[in-house]
Amino acid sequence: MRIEEFDYSLPKEMIAQYPPEDRTRSRLLVFERKHRTMEHRRFSDIIEYLREGDLLVLNNSKVFPARLVGKKQTGGMVEILLVEKTDRDRWLCLAKNVKNGADGLEISIGSHRATLQRQEEAFAVTFLYDGDSDDIVMEYGKMPLPPYIKRNNGNGAYSALDIKRYQTIYAEIKGSIAAPTAGFHFSEELMRTIESKGVEVVKITLHIGTGTFSLMKSHTVEAHRMHREYYDVDETARESIRSAREAGRRVVACGTSAVRTLETVFSGNEHVPLRGSTELFIYPGYRFRMVDALITNFHLPRSTPLALASAFAGRDELLGCYDEAIAQGYRFYSYGDAMLIL
């Protein structure tokens, strides 16, 4: 498939710049695959589509303040996005405003020094610090908002609101550099209502990294390669998921990251570990084994989450839903509205 098949036009004003005041008041486009029907609701209405006995799977990964700004000795600035910690003082990262030939570049982050080394397509940053580099990250890091969030607030794209809202209410395990945004729409009260209806809730972990947010750039979808992302499913969660499947209960995945974790662990290969790294890339033609319904946001053109949602709903059907959402004035991307695909 050509990656152009995953293009669509979106007016810039439909890219959500802030979250809604009430998480559950986001709009919800419900698409029923069998009859190809669409409904326009509010996210709080999702309770009407969940059944007693359903298993709702959430990704409890927590976003950490992965974006740092460093100062060169020459006075210029370097933007760093931490990707993966490889030692107590060393991280793989992406860096902007660094010349291709620069290696061993020394920068300062606050009162601390660090060096950048080229490492294949990315960089490694080493903090010259006696303690754990997490201390520096937590002191100077900012929430890694996506680049399409642009605000004229005097502080770039950042707001104190993002510390709380660029995070799900059930985030527990630190490790993501992009949020599992499908979960943004749940509130504590809505979660209690869902559980009181008899829906079983299970939490698994996939730390979202460059694999999820990197756009497809090869000529064909099949040629794209996902970067690895770490996942963890504990034994209790695995047994709950397996029991639901064996009993014929619906498995409802919240977010493409939850889908990829489920489809990795329950791939049919009994040697797949409960924790490790996945490079699973799901696009049209994929046969889903574990997921019956999907809660998801509206994704960027040529993105891997868009390819996954297309595989689940059908490419033409999904893009038809996107056309309808645009016509109805939905808000798109991370802080935008949601879909429920049944």
Outline of the structure:
By secondary structure, the protein is of the alpha/beta class. It has helices at about 135-140, 160-165, 190-195, 210-215, 235-245, 255-265, 305-315, 315-325, and strands spanning about 25-30, 35-40, 55-60, 60-65, 65-70, 75-85, 90-95, 105-110, 110-120, 120-130, 175, 200-205, 230, 250-255, 275-280, 295, 340.
Protein architecture, described:
- This protein folds into two domains: 3-63 and 163-341, 3-Layer(aba) Sandwich (QueA-like); 67-141, Thrombin, subunit H.
- Strand 6 and strand 7 (90-96) form a beta hairpin.
- A nine-stranded mixed β-sheet has the order 2-1-17-16-14-3-12-13-15. The chain has a six-stranded antiparallel beta barrel with strand order 5-6-7-10-9-8.
- It has helices spanning 134-140, 160-165, 188-196, 210-213, 235-246, 256-265, 304-313, 315-327, and strands at residues 27-32, 37-42, 55-59, 61-63, 67-72, 77-87, 90-96, 105-109, 112-119, 122-128, 173-176, 200-206, 229-232, 251-254, 275-278, 293-297, 338-341.
- The chain is of the alpha/beta class.
- It is globular, with a radius of gyration of 20 Å.
- Helix 7 packs across helix 8 (315-327).
